[in-house]
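User: Before I run my own analysis I want an independent prediction to cross-check against. Here's the chain; please return only the structure tokens and, at the end, one sentence I can use as a sanity check.
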Amino acid sequence: MTSQIKQELARLELQHDIKILYAVESGSRAWGFASTDRDWDVRFLSILRLEWYLQIDERKDSLEVMLPNDLDLAGWELQKVLRLYRKSNPPLLEWLNSPVIYAEPFSTAAKLRELTKEYFNPRSCIYHYLHMAERNFGEYLQKEFVRVKKYFYVLRPILACDWILQTKTMAPVEFRNLLDTQVADSEVKNEIENLLARKMAGGEMGQEPKIQVLNDFLEQKITFYRQEVKSAETLLQPDTGRLNELFLLTLKEVWG
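Assistant: Structure tokens:
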């Protein structure tokens, strides 16, 4: 599948006259708990030619393509990327740290990773992950019978909040790293380990009675972080200058 993904990325470059700076797997395959029939969620950063940036009309700055074999390709143009990076956009930061990289022919992604200490905003990221956890918890885990795989879509953002609060750095992409470092309660951890083993084995994970110990754990965490984001320090938006420099350097590196 990797070979097909690289071929499709090359085809997109030709079809849209772009250069792909960086391409990775996102979602559950990157998180480390994908089932055998999971879609391929490929995300990429791209740059267009200088002439594209010298026009006064706004133009589409994203690209999405659905292909056979459950292959989902989506990417953002570099100026959009840099504006989101300045805000500590968590999906973008996850892409930059994905363990599954399909392409990185230029230096842009590495330079963004180097700048993360300067631009990372813990409060913004905790707020993002809390909102994700609240939404999924309320939508999927409140009834007596729940889709048990949805626990992962609340656990992961909550454990990401724990990591960020503890380290003031971006949470790792891999769920295993979060589980091993952020869950101390043995009963909670055992329940998660059981679900994780079932998920990775590709077994049926349909409607089942809710797991009360996990619901209690998640509800306590959500309540805590609702207060935490209110009291957390609001950081000033960092300077744009270095990101402008990176944009110009990338134009030169890619197009000469």
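Sanity check: The chain has two domains: 2-119+236-255, 122-231.
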